[in-house]
Amino acid sequence: xxxxxxxxxxxxxxxxxxxxxxxxxxxxxxxxxxxxxxxxxxxxxxxxxxxxxxxxxxxxxxxxxxxxxxxxxxxxxxxxxxxxxxxxxxxxxxxxxxxxxxxxxxxxxxxxxxxxxxxxxxxxxxxxxxxxxxxxxxxxxxxxxxxxxxxxxxxxxxxxxxxxxxxxxxxxxxxxxxxxxxxxxxxxxxxxxxxxxxxxxxxxxxxxxxxxxxxxxxxxxxxxxxxxxxxxxxxxxxxxxxxxxxxxxxxxxxxxxxxxxxxxxxxxxxxxxxxxxxxxxxxxxxxxxxxxxxxxxxxxxxxxxxxxxxxxxxxxxxxxxxxxxxxxxxxxxxxxxxxxxxxxxxxxxxxxxxxxxxxxxxxxxxxxxxxxxxxxxxxxxxxxxxxxxxxxxxxxxxxxxxxxxxxxxxxxxxxxxxxxxxxxxxxxxxxxxxxxxxxxxxxxxxxxxxxxxxxxxxxxxxxxxxxxxxxxxxxxxxxxxxx
Length: 483
Ligand SMILES: Cc1cc2nc3c(=O)[nH]c(=O)nc-3n(C[C@H](O)[C@H](O)[C@H](O)COP(=O)(O)OP(=O)(O)OC[C@H]3O[C@@H](n4cnc5c(N)ncnc54)[C@H](O)[C@@H]3O)c2cc1C
What we know:
33% of the residues lie in helices and 19% in strands. The chain has 483 residues and is of the alpha/beta class. The strands form four sheets. It has an eight-stranded mixed beta sheet with strand order 16-17-18-4-1-2-3-19, sandwiched between helices. Helix 1 (30-45) crosses helix 4 (80-88), helix 1 packs across helix 14 (393-408) and helix 16 packs across helix 17.
C-alpha cells in the first residue's frame, strides 16, 4: 500500500527556526492538492507551522478531474469529494485564475515563499508525425476532451459532421474519446456536460467510430474497467475482427502476463463471438494497424495504415513487439482524433526536459542544467514524471516530493516579504481577478443549482459553467457575500 503521510518529523530539528514555512504550489490538480495536504499534515504533526498557497490558472480547482476525466465517469469525478475535504480544512489557501508565468513570475514567488512546488500537469496532445495529420478534420484528443468537459479556454463549437471517425491510440483516453463520440447524447444527460456540448453531440451524424492500435490485442494500454464498459454503452455495438487475433501470439503473450492483461484479452476474445445487435452506432476496435498517413483533398477523406505483426522478440517480451508487414489498408473517414498521449509544457524560468516533456528532477527536487538541485524548487504529478498513471498515483508522487521539501526546509532562505497576504495585494495591484476557496464554494453551489433547475428528463447533479469570466464573476461575488 502507498503510504500517504511524510516520514515523521518529530525526531528532526524544528522545521523552521525563524518564521513559519511558506510554500506556493502551482497547479490545483490532484497532485498539487495531495502535496498541500501531505505537507500541511507533516508540518503540523511536528508542532511547526506552515502556510500553503495553492495557485491555479483556472478559476476552479481539481485540474484534469474537472477538465479531463470523462463526464460519464461519475465515480472517478467523485474523487473531488476527498480533495474538497482537504481544501475545506482551511490549511491550504486556494487562489485561482492566477497563471504562473503571466500573473506571477519566479522572482515574485521567491520573494513571498520559502519553496515553490510545480504541479502543472499536462494538457497538450503529444504529436503524431505522419503526413496529413494537420488536415482540417484531424483533431487532438486533448482539445476534444477540453471541449466536452467545458474547459474555459477550449473553443465552444466543435465540428461534429462526420459519419465515420478514426481514433488513433490504445490507451484509456482513446476509449474515452471513442465512447464520447459514439454514445447517444441522451445517455449523457445525467452528467455535468454543458448545454452546448449536449447540443453539439445531439447533432452528430456519426455511425462508426474506429479505434486503431499499432500493436496486438494483448498489448493494449487500456484498463479492464474502461474496456469492459464499452459493452454497456446503450445503442452501440462493439466490433472486433478475427484477423487481428493471432492465437499463437496471444497464447505466448498470456504466458507471463499479469491478471489485467488476461482479463482484457478475455474480454476482447469474448466480443469476437458476439453478433452485432444491429444498433445504429458501432465502435470498432482494430489492432495491428500502424498509422501511415491521413489523406484528403483539403480535408480528411480517409486514413492509411500498414498492418503489423508480432515479432519474435515481442513474443519473448521485447519492447515494441511489432513490425510492418507491407500490407496497406485505407479507411474512408471524415474525421481523425489522435489520442497518442499528453505532453507537459515548459514553464518560464523553470528547467524543462524537452525530450520527456517534464521538469527535470530528483525525487521532486528540480534540477538545473548541471543536474544540481535548485534550492526551494520542487515538482510533483504529471509535470514531474510524465503524463502516465491514474489520479491515485499522484498521491505517492506528492509524498516523495514533500518528503524532500521537508528534509530541505530548515536550510531554505527566508523570503524577503514577511506578510502572507502581500501576495494577494500584489495580484490585486496587477489587476488579476483571482478567485478563492469561498469563491469556489459559491461557484460549486451555483453549478449544482443549475443542475437542479435543468429541465431535462433526468436528475442532474450539476451543470458546469464554462466561460472563464462568468466563473470568475460568480466566484468573486459569492466570496464577497461569504466574507
Ligand atoms: C482525458 C483524461 C482522462 C483521464 N481519466 C482518468 C480516470 O478516469 N481515472 C484516473 O484515475 N485518472 C484519469 N486521468 C489521469 C488523471 O487526470 C491524472 O493522473 C491527474 O490529473 C494528474 O494530476 P496533476 O495534478 O499532475 O495534473 P492536472 O490534473 O493536469 O493538474 C494540473 C493543474 O495545473 C494547472 N496549471 C497548469 N499550468 C499552470 C500555470 N502556468 N499556472 C497555474 N496553474 C497551472 C492546470 O490548470 C491544472 O489545474 C485522465 C487523464 C486524462 C487526460
